[in-house]
Structures are given as structure tokens and as C-alpha cells.
Write a structure and sequence with these properties.
The structure holds three protein chains of three kinds.
Chain A: H1 3-13, H2 18-57, H3 75-111, H4 118-138, H5 147-174, H6 183-207, E1 213-214, H7 221-224, E2 226-230, E3 233-236, H8 237-259, H9 261-271, H10 273-278, H11 283-309, E4 311-312, H12 318-331, H13 336-356, H14 368-382
Antiparallel strand pairs in A: 1-4, 2-3
Helix pairs in contact in A: 1-2, 2-3, 2-8, 2-13, 3-8, 3-11, 3-12, 3-13, 4-5, 4-6, 4-11, 4-12, 5-11, 8-9, 8-11, 9-11, 12-13, 12-14, 13-14
Chain B: H1 2-12, H2 16-38, H3 46-65, H4 71-92, H5 94-119, H6 128-142, H7 148-151, H8 161-180, H9 188-208, H10 239-251, H11 259-287, H12 290-300, H13 302-307, H14 312-338, H15 348-361, H16 366-396, E1 400-401, E2 406-407, H17 421-435, H18 444-453, H19 460-469, H20 472-477, H21 480-498
Antiparallel strand pairs in B: 1-2
Helix pairs in contact in B: 2-3, 2-4, 3-4, 3-16, 4-5, 5-11, 5-14, 5-15, 5-16, 6-8, 6-9, 6-14, 8-14, 10-11, 11-14, 12-14, 15-16, 19-21
Chain C: H1 7-45, E1 51-58, H2 65-87, E2 92-99, H3 104-115, E3 120-125, H4 129-141, E4 145-148, H5 155-158, E5 164-166, H6 171-184, E6 190-195, H7 199-214, E7 218-224, H8 232-241, E8 245-249, H9 252-264, E9 270-273, H10 281-286, E10 294-297, H11 308-319, H12 327-347, H13 355-363, E11 368-370, E12 373-375, E13 385-392, E14 406-413, H14 415-433
Parallel strand pairs in C: 1-2, 1-3, 3-4, 4-5, 6-7, 6-8, 8-9, 9-10
Antiparallel strand pairs in C: 10-13, 11-12, 13-14
The chains are: A mainly alpha, B mainly alpha, C alpha/beta.
Chain lengths: ~400, ~525, ~425
């Protein structure tokens, strides 16, 4: 991390560039540095954990049957061998969780309620990505256009549609409920989530008579092309696309929230609605914008998730949504930086558990989700406001 | 007591105006019942008729309950509906018995969840986990799957059902306390998400505990995993019951195919009714007790409640344990009745369904929970499915919708209503929250709170309804702390009401019969 | 009354009047409904008194709907084409499709509804053994006959219920046939076996893994997963061990996603699966990744059956798509049901037969010519001899699914038949000895 200030000081020597450098440092290098730092922290702590567990458990634990590894497997060796892949998987899915988690955390920051329907907005993003790809394919454009243009079209369309959908949802289902007890909008959000799932299902059943929506990525060789990072560790362009787009979005959001007037207004609303409105901020407009931005991010995350998993159905939203929410709580809900850290940590933890569990025949993969929830519960028990959350005093 | 004498006075002055609603209600029940009896499954329009008439029949006890007649009379009338008319319908078509049993199961769970969410204000999104505890307790010990229990010969005899019913209550209550202990510090949304996680953990556990040994060839199977437990036993019934049912059905001219199966259906119907009634009784007594008031206090303001000396920890744990125990009992019955349990029956969606029952009926209201269970279950199991069956039946005869000339054959298969239960439920929840957040049959206290908080947006019409709902004895009987707040709200409402034109009639509630005005 | 003069009681009196009015309205609505009901009910009932219904239960919505709809359509086509056999005897034959959503709960709830419709005399279904097992308990309780076109799990018929039959093969033989091919032809040394944790998937995967181990192949992993989208967790250990073969015991909608992600992540093993893979959606979802995959099935391609050509043509004409796997099986099952109905009605002298009579007539089916060949049931409801086919996915084009080349096929008798044959041989030997 010492490289960053050095670079900054080198840049600041030029007086002409001074303002631009400051801006660049503040809204570009610093957030990227922070994201990378989080990734490194999460990655290294999980690697250490994995190696330690692998080392401790490699010996046959007589008496504890469920911790017994089949005799032919050297657990430590296996852990070392799959560590790079594990980290890569963890980072990829972690970034997706982080982008979804931002939608939860922003809405929570402003309105103090869990937007349960966000997972369905995310699912809609994946479906929009599918529609764009299929339309391009039918117009014979999919293999003609440069892959980057395809990606930008998909993400752009998803952001537009999902941003608009989130605003509509807010107007119809949440706005009439402002000021009601907290349970009321939460239940309305659950209702929206149910409605959207079946709405998309009905739409695609009538539109194309399908349920499964596989992305035709086979037609774009660029997506599947392999990149060799190191011996035994290769990845596809898709993974890189996911990571890079996620970082761009995170940096963009950081700029939006911290450097623009609207961002400032949103932060003001999240701190104190009444005071913000006295200061001449249009609270309703800011809430709408928050939903729009959160929805757009969710939609983009949907496309990334679709690219990663290759098949989309109307039911994919629930589990990633739940995990992303867990990530948001893990990092401290309402805190944007926390959501990124939480997402990366959760992605890593999941990769860690699922890489180790198959070697214990008495446990097996089925339990990996248990650990995600167990971690969530533990964090909440010891730090009820999450890792980066601030302790809020009770209002009496 | 003034109320007592008032009541007696009313009862003695039964003139025709007062008797009219009762006569109407009885006529209503009789007409709906005889129409249901006259239905024939071979009829083309059977699905539509039965999904209109049966819900009307199920609502009849609520209508009777809303009558302004002595409690004993209402109880007798409801008992006749439940214990005479319903079984007769069941003999004609045991699917009705199936439906009403499901309704009662959901109702008991909704009452349990009501204790946690409605009374104590602790939002529990993993409530179905307690149901799973009960169901798996009986399931593991009597299933014919190759579980460790069966292999080691530790299976329970079916006679032990009653013991297990009790054990199910205990086990669920303990699970409730185990969940409650760590989450005591959490509140609101955090609590919701932790309970959700807890529910999922239980579900993942039961779907994975099919092999906890390192040797795949020699698995230690506890729950039979995602495949579920088949062949769960029912308690044995004495022979005379079968004979009685057989002679009864024959004498009524409604012989059933399989007397054994039908007797069991009747038995479970009776059993769930009893458990449901017990739950309702317990919850109702608690609501009006110091414990209930302590819960209300915690729900309204935890810090203030603690400051006033309400034992927060004890009260919260009690709410969790009590709410869970109802679900545990129903779990045991559910497993025995269904003869099959699988982890899918205990997914997050099920928790949401039970929550929807509570919300639709009215949070904190016991009548509401039962009513909500009726609506949600009927919608899910009967109305939507029958709608699909009706479309299919019409398709079979190439029916054409009159007036618009639409051949039903062209109705897309993708749009069969039975497939869109979530869509319907989603809309139901949203619409309920926007237009009637206090539920269809709200608890009075709750309704006031919800309307009070939205006072500035309340229409004049709703305000007059508010006034109609508040009576002096209500205010006197309410606990002092809440009473004061409520009085302030009521005074506020009354102030506004005075400004209204005097001839505007008050409009209590919408669509459904409202609260009975006297307490028995 | 003391309170009469106070405003509260005036209000409560008004409330009462209001209630009266509402009661009256409610009553009026019910009365009108009743009248309408009587008018409508009067007309059609008498004409439809003698109706026999055949129900189908399969997933018509959700990820597995392609196969479920094939079952529904196959049964419907048979009823449309052959229903007149029953109609000639004075009964109207109707078809009632149910959607079990591939979920045991829904299947059981539907079954409760089905058994209560006295006109339903047979059920064609299910797709998923995990749904069929609990649902058939309810059919059996009410003597309602079920013929499964697709359930290969051994427990379906091993329970020995008189009402439960199937026209397809069994998983013990299917797993063994697949393993045999993998060992002898693919010459694998290591294998990773996955399943979807349903009765069907886990059952067939277990038989497959056991047969492999008996043949000396090392099974480096045996995992169940209910994941449907992100298979990172499963793929990481497979990547680390690079087995020769990856087997997925489950249904195509889940397996195709897994295979595609595995290929993308660099798993180079051969892929294999059971009859749940037999759907054109496998390549639609899996794309290039599943080309070259081997799958076993008990439903041979329609082109194998001489009688099936006409069926394929009619099916295409009726539903506008090529028949998926199990459409022909469902058609065959319905043929058997209709044949049994005709027999039962005749035995009953033209009266409505009971469910038990229909069940007995179905079980008595002997050398009956169906669209998928001759079928006879053994005492447990298994077809006496079933054929197991091994096919390879040839093309990533879903349209060409029907053209997947058949590698080999194995005929195997059901366990009861095998036992009978052994007993017979023994008897013959004893006779010879004597």
C-alpha cells in the first residue's frame, strides 16, 4: 500500500495536475486500493485458515469419526493444490455478492428496512441479460459485435430495466407505507418478491414458453477463452469480466456517493430525514434515486451472475439474495464499504468450506450453507452491528 | 359488573330486530350446506361451485361468532357446524375434510407465530423450523426408512403417539429457547434475518443428516436426508371407532370407500380441532394476562418496558418457547397424518406462508389467525387448483366463453392459475399492507396502533370507524401505560370526529362482520 | 338502558343496524348464487353421469417441465386416439392433468384430491420417484392404479403394492448397465459420482457407484447437492482430483448447468448420466459442454420402436414439437390403462368398474402390444423384461436430440422374473436329475 502515497506525491509535484491528481487519488486510486486491500485481507486470512485446518486435520483423528478423511487423501496436499482455485472462486462470487449487497445496504441506510425484493430485481437483471443476448443472437449480431460491446449492452440494459423496476416497486409497494411500523414495509417487500418471481416466470412462459434461460455464451468464443495465470491455475475471460466490471461499479458508486451533490444529499437523508428536508433536500426524490441506483447495481450483478452460472431461472434470486444480505449484515448494514468487505469475506468463506467439506465423507457439501449462516449468526452475536458498523445508541 | 347486567338485559329483550341476524346466519349456514351437499363431482362446473361454496361454508363459524347472542348459543351453533355438518360433508367428499384439517394445522401454527410476532413483536422468519422439530421427532421414530433408529430397533410403538405429542411440544419449546437465548440482544431486522438463518440451518441439517459416518458403505442415517421419511405410523384406534364410523356412514346413506382411512381422517380432524382450540384458548388467556401485557410492553418499547420492571429475558424466551410449542405439537400430528415428511415441507416459503396467515388475519388477533389460515389455505389448496381443473374440464368439452366468443381451448397452458400461487400471495400481501395493514380481523389494540401511527393520512371515514371501535370499558381494561397513549389517540380521533357532519353513519371495517360488541 | 343516551351507545346501535344490513346483503348474495347454481347444475349433470377419468401427475411447471409435459401430452394423445374404445361401451373418457411441480408435498396434496374423484380410475405418473413414492401410498390406500412411465427407483415396485406398476426399467439394472459400459468400453480408472439428493438421483448414483467399486474402479468422490446455479463448490474438488469420469445421478435441468460450468472451469473428464438426462433441454442448457456425454436410459429413442413412427408423427401434429423422452412411455401406459378399462367394463357387464377391478386388470396385462413394444407385468408391477439403452450426445443442437446414436442396449429381466427363471431352471434340472 506504500506505493499509493508515493505515486500521489509524485503526481502532486506538478502544480498543473494538482487538482486532477487529488481527484484521481481520492475517487479512483483510494477506493481501488481499498477494494484490493479487502480482497487481500480476506484472501490471506482464508488461506491461512485453510492451511491450518488442512494441517491439523490431515492426521487421522481417531475417535472423531465425522472428522475422518479417507486414507488415500492427504488433506494438506489437497488444500495446497486447490487453494489458488479456491481463492479465485471466492473472489469472483464475492464481488457478485458485494454488488448485490450494495443494493440492500443503500436502501437500508436510507429507509432502515430490508428490501426483500432486491433479490428478485437481481434475478430480473439476469433475465434481461438473457433477453439481450438472445435478441442479438437472433439478429445474427452476437458473434459479429465485439464481446465488450455485448457485455456493455447486456449490463446497460439490465441496469436500465432494473433501475426502473426498483423505482416502480418503491412507488407502488413501499411509498404508501412510509411511517408505518417497520414490519409493514418488510412484509410488503416479501410480497413484491413473491410477485416478481412468478411475474417473470409467467412472462417468459408466454413469451418464449421456457423456464430455463441458458446464456448462449458458446457463440462468443471470447467468453470461454482460457487465460493461464500460473501453473495449474487458469481462468476464463468471464471471470475477469466479472471481477473488472464489479470493481468499476464499486468505484463508480463510491464516486457517486462521495463526490456528487446527489450522493451528498443521499448521505444526508440517511443520517436524518427530517433535518435533510429542512435543508432543502427533496427527500422523496433522494429515496427514489437510492432505489434506482441500488436496483441498477442489482441488475448488473444479475448479468454477472448469469455469465458465471450460464443458466438463469426465475428462482435464482433467492439464494444469492440471501447470501448478499448476509454479506451486507456481516460488513455492517447501511455501510457501503462494509458491504464490499462482507461480500468478499462471505464469498471466500463459502469457497473455503465447500473446498474442504467434500473430503469428509461424514459431512459432505450439503453443509456449506450452514456455515454461511452460522458465521452470520456468530458475527451478529458478538458484533450486532457488523464488522464495520457503528454502534448506534438507543433512542429512548 | 355493568357489562354483565347489560348483557342479561339484552338477552331478555330479544325482539325480532335482534333475532334477525341470527336467523339470517342460520339460514345462510343451512343453504350453503345443502348446496354443498347437492354438488356432484361429475358436474361440469363442480370445481367452480365447490371453490365458491366451501369457503362460504368455512366462513360460517366466523359469521356465527360475530352474532350478538349469548356466548353459549354461539358455541353450540359453531359446534354443530364443526362436529355435525363438517363430518357429513367429509363423508360425501373427504377432500373437504382434508382441507379443513390443513386449515386447522395452519391455524394452530399461525396462533403460535402470533404469540411471537403479534404479541411480543419478535419477527420470526424461521418459524417452520419448530414444526419440523415436531414432525421429525415422530417421523424418525416410526418411519420405515432405514434410519439408525430402525436399524438399532429403537422404533417407537404407534401407541406412544400421545407421549410423542407431548414430547414434540417439549422439544419444540426447548428449540425455541435455544434459538431465543443467543438472539435476545438482537431486534427488528437483525432478529428477522437470524431467525431466517436458523430456519434454513434446521432445514439443511435435516436434509443432510442421512450419513454422518466416514464409511459410505455403512452410513449412519438419522433423517433419511432430502428423500424424506416415508411410511410414518399413525396411533392405533380402538376397533369400536371403526365400527361406529361404518355404521354411522351407512345409516346416513353416505357409505365411504375405505372405512379405516376415513376413520383416521375423522380422527385427525378432531385432533387438530382440539389442538387448535387449545392453542387459541391458551393464547387468548395469555393475551389478557400480565404476561400478555408484558409482551405488549416489550413490543412497544423495550427500553421503557425494562425500566418499568418487565423481565425482558424471561418474557422473550417465554414467547419463543410458547410459540414454538404449538408448532411442535402440530408437527407431530402432521407427520402422522401425512405418513411422509421431507425437508421441502419446511422451506423458507412455508415460514412466509404462516407469516402471511398471521398478517392477512390480523397481527395479534387469534380470530384473525384462524380466519387467515382459512383464506390462505383455501386459496392455495382449493381455489387456485380448482380454477385450473375447471379450465381443464371446460377444455375437454370445447367450451366457448359466451359474449366474448373465446374458445377455452385457446387459453394458454402456461397460464394455469394453480401455477401462480406465489403471484397471488405476493399481491395479497402487498394489497393487505397498503390498504389494511391491521389485517382482516384485527386485534383492537393493534388496529389502533397502526391507525394511530398513520393518523395524518387517515381518511375521515377510517377515523369514524376508529371512534366506533373504542368503548369506555376497553380503555378501562387496558393496561395503564398503554391506556394513556391510547386515550390520547382516541381523544385526538374524537376531536376530529366532532368536526364531521353528524348524519354520517359510522362504517366499521369493510367487507366482513366486525367485532362482537360484548365480551362474554 | 342506562347507556342509551350516551353517544357511544348510539354509535353501537348504528353499528348494529349496519351489521344487519350487511348480513342481509350477504344472505341475498348467497340466495342468488344458490339460484344460479341450481339452474346451471340442473342441465349438464345427467348427460355426463357415466364419465371415466384418467389423471396424469407430472411437473408441468418449473425446470423439469419439458419431461413432465411430455408425459402429460403422451397420455392425452392416447386418450384422444383410443378413447373411443371406452366410449363404445357407453362411457365418456376424460383426461385430467395435474401439476406435481416435482415436489413431494404437492404430489401428495394432488393425490388426496385425485382419490376423492370417484370417476378417476387410473393415474399416469410421476416423473420423479421422490414424488411417486409418497403419492402412491395414497393411491394404494384407495386401490387406485398408477402406471409410471418414468420412475426407475427400485422402491417404487419393491413395496409389492397391487396398484403400482411401471412400463420403464429399474435403477439397479440401469446403474449396473452404465457402470459396465464405463468399465469395459470407456476403461475408466477413477470416477466422481454426484447426485441430486432425491430418491431417484441418489438411488441410481448409489447403484452406479457400487457397480463401479465392484469392478475395481476407484470412486474418488460421492456427493449430493441440491444446488442449481453455482457449482463452484462441487467443481473445486473434481478439478483437484481430475477423475476419468464424472457421473451425475439426477435430472437434466440441474446436471446440464453443472456439466457446462465444469467444462468451463477446465474439468476434462468424460461425463455420464442416467435417464434423467434424456431431454433436448440438456444440450440447450449445457451447449457444447455435454456433446460426447454418455447417458443410459430405459426409454429408447422412438425410432427404435416400429410402432412409434406413427406416434411421433401424430405427436408432432398435435403438439407442434417432437416427443421428448417418456412421451411414448406415457402413451404406452395409457394404452395399457384403456385396455384394462375395456376388459374391466366388460367383466362388470357394462357397469362402471371399481378401482380394484381396474387395478387387477392392469396387473394382469400379458404380452400387450404397445407403442414401445410388448409389455407384461410381473407380480410386483415391473415389466417382465426391460431394455436399457446407452446413448451418446452427438450434437449441441436441441433439434437433433432425437438423432443421438445408440451405442448399445442391454435386456434385463425384473428381479421377480429373474428369480422365477432361476427357480424354473432349478426345477428343470431337478426334473432332469430325477
Amino acid at each position: 500500500m506504500t506505493a499509493v502515497p508515493n505515486l500521489a506525491s509524485a503526481l502532486s509535484r506538478s502544480r498543473l495536475l494538482n487538482g486532477a491528481a487529488e481527484w484521481f487519488l481520492q475517487y479512483f486510486l483510494k477506493p481501488i486500493g481499498q477494494i484490493l486491500l479487502f480482497a487481500v485481507i480476506a484472501g490471506s486470512s482464508i488461506s491461512l485458515l485453510a492451511l491450518a485446518v488442512g494441517f491439523v486435520l490431515q492426521t487421522d483423528w481417531h475417535g472423531i469419526d465425522i472428522l475422518r478423511v479417507p486414507a488415500r487423501i492427504n488433506l494438506f496436499e489437497q488444500v495446497v493444490r486447490q487453494l489458488p482455485n479456491m481463492l479465485l472462486d471466492g473472489i469472483t462470487i464475492g464481488f457478485v455478492y458485494a454488488v448485490i449487497a450494495l443494493g440492500y445496504t443503500m436502501v437500508y441506510g436510507v429507509l432502515k428496512f430490508i428490501n426483500f425484493a432486491h433479490s428478485e430485481i437481481f434475478m430480473m437483471g439476469a433475465v434481461v441479460g438473457y433477453e439481450v443476448m438472445i435478441r442479438l443472437r437472433d439478429g445474427q449480431l452476437l458473434s459479429e459485435l465485439p464481446p465488450l460491446v455485448v457485455i456493455i449492452l447486456m449490463i446497460g440494459a439490465a441496469m436500465l430495466v432494473c433501475g426502473a423496476a426498483a423505482v416502480v416497486v418503491e412507488r407502488v409497494a413501499y411509498k404508501p407505507l412510509r411511517g408505518a411500523p417497520r414490519l409493514v414495509p418488510l412484509i410488503s417487500a416479501i410480497g413484491v418478491s413473491f410477485f416478481l418471481t412468478d411475474f417473470v416466470r409467467a412472462f417468459q412462459a408466454l413469451n418464449r414458453n421456457i423456464f430455463n434461460m441458458p446464456y448462449p455464451t458458446d457463440l462468443v468464443p471470447f467468453f470461454g477463452a482460457r487465460i493461464n495465470i500460473a501453473e495449474g491455475l487458469s481462468t476464463t475471460n468471464t471471470t475477469l469480466i466479472i471481477i473488472i466490471s464489479a470493481i468499476i461499479m464499486l468505484v463508480g458508486l463510491n464516486y457517486f456517493v462521495n463526490a456528487t451533490k446527489i450522493g451528498k444529499a443521499i448521505r444526508a437523508v440517511s443520517q436524518d430525514q427530517a433535518t435533510a428536508s429542512l435543508m432543502g433536500i427533496n427527500v422523496n426524490l433522494m429515496i427514489t434515486i437510492t432505489f434506482m441506483v441500488g436496483g441498477a447495481l442489482g441488475g448488473a450483478a444479475g448479468v454477472l451472475y448469469g455469465l458465471k452460472t450460464t443458466n438463469v431461472t426465475p428462482y435464482i434470486g433467492f439464494i444469492p439474495g440471501l447470501k448478499a444480505f448476509t454479506a451486507a449484515v456481516l460488513g455492517g448494514i447501511g455501510n457501503i464499504t462494509g458491504a464490499v468487505l462482507g461480500g468478499l469475506l462471505l464469498g471466500m468463506l463459502e469457497a473455503f468450506f465447500s473446498a474442504l467439506l467434500p473430503y469428509f465423507p461424514a459431512l459432505g457439501l450439503g453443509y456449506s450453507d450452514i456455515f454461511a449462516f452460522a458465521v452470520l449468526i456468530l458475527v451478529l452475536l458478538f458484533r450486532p452491528t457488523g464488522l464495520l458498523g457503528k454502534k448506534v445508541d438507543e433512542k429512548v | 359488573m355493568a357489562t354483565q347486567s347489560l348483557l342479561q338485559e339484552r338477552a331478555s329483550r330479544l325482539n325480532w330486530r335482534e333475532a334477525l341476524p341470527t336467523i339470517f346466519a342460520i339460514l345462510y349456514v343451512l343453504i350453503v350446506f345443502s348446496l354443498l351437499r347437492s354438488l356432484n363431482r361429475a358436474d361440469l362446473w363442480f370445481p367452480t361451485y365447490s371453490s365458491i361454496l366451501f369457503p362460504l361454508f368455512v366462513f360460517s363459524p366466523f359469521i356465527i361468532f360475530a352474532l350478538k347472542i349469548p356466548f353459549a348459543l354461539r358455541a353450540v351453533l359453531i359446534a354443530i357446524i364443526g362436529l355435525v355438518l363438517m363430518p357429513i360433508l367429509g363423508m360425501q367428499d373427504s377432500f373437504y375434510l382434508e382441507l379443513i384439517t390443513q386449515i386447522a394445522i395452519f391455524a394452530a401454527m399461525a396462533i403460535g407465530l402470533n404469540v411471537v410476532v403479534g404479541f411480543a413483536g419478535l419477527l420470526d422468519l424461521g418459524y417452520v423450523a419448530f414444526f419440523a422439530v415436531g414432525a421429525y421427532l415422530w417421523g424418525i421414530f416410526t418411519s420405515n426408512a432405514n434410519t439408525i433408529v430402525r436399524i438399532s430397533g429403537a422404533q417407537a410403538a404407534p401407541e406412544l403417539f400421545w407421549l410423542f405429542l407431548f414430547l414434540g411440544v417439549i422439544a419444540a419449546a426447548i428449540t425455541g429457547i435455544l434459538l431465543g437465548l443467543p438472539v435476545l440482544r438482537l431486534r427488528g431486522d437483525y432478529l428477522a434475518i437470524v431467525t431466517l438463518g436458523f430456519g434454513e440451518i434446521i432445514r439443511i441439517l435435516v436434509s443432510n443428516l442421512s450419513n454422518i459416518s466416514s464409511n459410505r458403505r455403512n452410513p449412519i442415517n438419522i433423517t433419511n436426508g432430502a428423500q424424506g421419511l416415508p411410511g410414518i405410523l399413525s396411533p392405533p384406534l380402538p376397533d369400536f371407532m371403526f365400527q361406529a364410523v361404518e355404521s354411522l356412514t351407512n345409516s346416513l346413506g353416505l357409505p365411504v370407500n375405505n372405512v379405516r382411512a376415513f376413520t383416521y381422517q375423522l380422527f385427525y380432524y378432531g385432533l387438530v380441532l382440539i389442538v387448535c382450540a387449545l392453542s387459541a384458548l391458551i393464547a387468548a388467556r395469555l393475551d389478557n394476562s400480565p404476561i400478555g401485557r408484558a409482551w405488549t410492553a416489550i413490543r412497544e418499547d423495550e427500553v421503557a418496558a425494562q425500566a418499568m420492571g418487565v423481565p425482558k429475558v424471561k418474557m422473550k424466551l417465554l414467547a419463543f418457547a410458547l410459540g414454538a410449542s404449538f408448532a411442535g405439537a402440530m408437527g407431530v400430528i402432521f407427520a402422522a397424518r401425512n405418513t411422509f415428511v421431507s425437508p421441502e415441507s419446511f422451506s423458507f416459503i412455508q415460514s412466509i406462508f404462516i407469516l402471511a396467515v398471521v398478517i392477512v388475519g390480523g397481527m395479534g388477533s387469534i380470530r384473525g389467525a384462524i380466519f387467515g389460515a382459512a383464506i390462505v389455505t383455501l386459496l392455495n389448496l382449493q381455489v387456485l387448483k380448482n380454477f385450473s381443473l375447471q379450465i381443464n374440464a371446460l377444455r375437454n368439452i370445447d367450451w366457448v366463453v359466451p359474449i366474448i366468443d373465446f374458445p377455452i381451448r385457446n387459453w394458454p397452458q402456461q397460464l394455469e392459475p394453480a401455477r401462480y400461487e406465489r403471484l397471488v400471495f405476493g399481491l395479497l400481501l402487498i394489497v393487505m399492507m397498503i390498504f389494511r395493514p391491521s389485517g382482516l380481523l384485527p386485534a383492537k389494540r393493534r388496529q389502533l396502533e397502526l391507525q394511530g401511527e398513520r393518523a395524518e393520512r387517515i381518511s375521515e371515514k377510517e377515523l369514524t370507524a376508529d371512534v366506533a371501535e373504542i368503548r369506555p370499558e376497553d380503555l378501562l381494561s387496558a393496561p395503564a401505560a398503554i391506556g394513556e397513549a391510547k386515550e390520547a389517540k382516541a381523544a385526538n380521533a374524537a376531536d376530529i370526529a366532532e368536526d364531521l357532519p353528524a348524519d354520517q353513519p359510522p362504517t366499521p371495517g369493510e367487507g366482513l362482520p366486525d367485532e362482537p360488541k360484548e365480551k362474554p | 338502558m342506562r347507556l342509551d343516551s350516551s353517544p357511544e351507545s348510539i354509535i353501537s346501535q348504528r353499528v348494529q343496524e349496519e351489521t344487519h344490513m350487511r348480513m342481509f346483503k350477504l344472505f341475498a348474495v348467497v340466495a342468488v348464487l344458490a339460484l344460479i347454481g341450481q339452474v346451471f347444475a340442473a342441465a349438464p349433470v345427467s348427460a355426463q353421469d357415466k364419465v371415466i377419468k384418467i389423471a396424469s401427475q407430472s411437473p408441468l411447471s418449473g425446470g423439469q417441465s419439458l419431461l413432465g409435459t411430455a408425459i402429460r401430452n403422451g397420455a392425452e394423445l392416447a386418450i384422444m386416439q383410443l378413447g373411443k374404445q371406452v366410449e363404445e361401451l357407453g362411457f365418456k373418457l376424460e383426461f385430467v392433468p395435474f401439476d406435481d411441480q416435482a415436489t413431494p408435498d404437492v404430489g401428495v396434496a394432488n393425490a388426496q384430491n385425485i382419490v376423492n374423484d370417484a370417476a378417476i380410475l387410473a393415474v399416469i405418473g410421476h416423473l420423479n420417484s421422490g414424488v411417486a413414492l409418497p403419492s402412491s401410498e395414497i393411491y394404494n390406500r384407495e386401490n387406485l392404479v398408477m402406471i409410471s412411465p418414468a420412475n426407475t427407483n427400485v422402491r417404487i415396485t419393491d413395496r409389492g403394492y397391487p396398484t403400482v406398476n411401471r412400463v420403464c426399467g429399474r435403477d439397479d439394472a440401469q446403474g449396473a448397465a452404465g457402470a459396465d459400459y464405463a468399465v469395459k468400453e470407456l476403461k475408466i480408472k477413477t470416477a466422481f459420482v454426484l447426485h441430486d439428493k432425491t430418491a431417484y438421483g441418489e438411488g441410481v448414483a448409489t447403484f452406479f457407484a457400487q457397480a463401479l467399486e465392484e469392478a475395481g474402479v476407484e470412486v474418488v468422490g460421492f456427493e449430493g447437492t441440491t444446488e442449481t446455479a453455482n457449482f463452484d463448490a462441487v467443481i473445486t474438488p473434481i478439478l483437484a482430483q481430475q477423475p476419468d469420469l464424472v457421473y451425475f445421478g439426477g435430472i437434466y435441468n440441474q446436471a446440464a448447468v453443472f456439466f457446462r460450468q465444469a467444462r468451463e472451469k477446465g474439468v476434462k473428464s468424460k461425463f455420464m448420466g442416467p435417464d434423467g438426462m434424456d431431454s433436448s433441454d440438456l444440450v440447450k442448457i449445457g451447449g457444447e459442454a455435454v456433446v460426447g456425454m454418455i447417458y443410459t436410459t430405459t426409454a429408447g429413442p422412438a425410432s427404435l420402436y416400429p410402432a412409434a413412427a406413427q406416434f411421433v408423427e401424430d405427436y408432432k401434429k398435435q403438439f407442434g414439437a417432437s416427443p421428448e423422452a417418456y412421451a411414448a412411455e406415457a402413451y404406452a401406459a395409457t394404452q395399457i390403462v384403456i385396455n384394462a378399462l375395456v376388459k374391466a367394463i366388460k367383466e362388470n357387464k357394462g357397469e362402471m368398474p371399481t378401482r380394484a377391478q381396474v387395478a387387477a386388470a392392469v396387473r394382469a396385462t400379458e404380452d400387450f402390444e404397445t407403442v414401445i413394444g410388448k409389455i407384461s407385468f410381473d407380480a410386483n408391477g415391473d415389466p417382465k423384461v426391460a431394455t436399457y439403452y446407452i446413448l451418446e450426445v452427438a450434437s449441441a443442437d436441441p433439434e437433433k436430440w432425437g438423432e443421438n446414436p445408440l451405442i448399445t442396449s442391454v435386456q434385463a429381466p425384473s428381479p421377480l422374473t429373474a428369480k422365477e427363471m432361476m427357480d424354473k431352471e432349478k426345477m428343470d434340472e431337478e426334473k432332469k436329475d430325477k
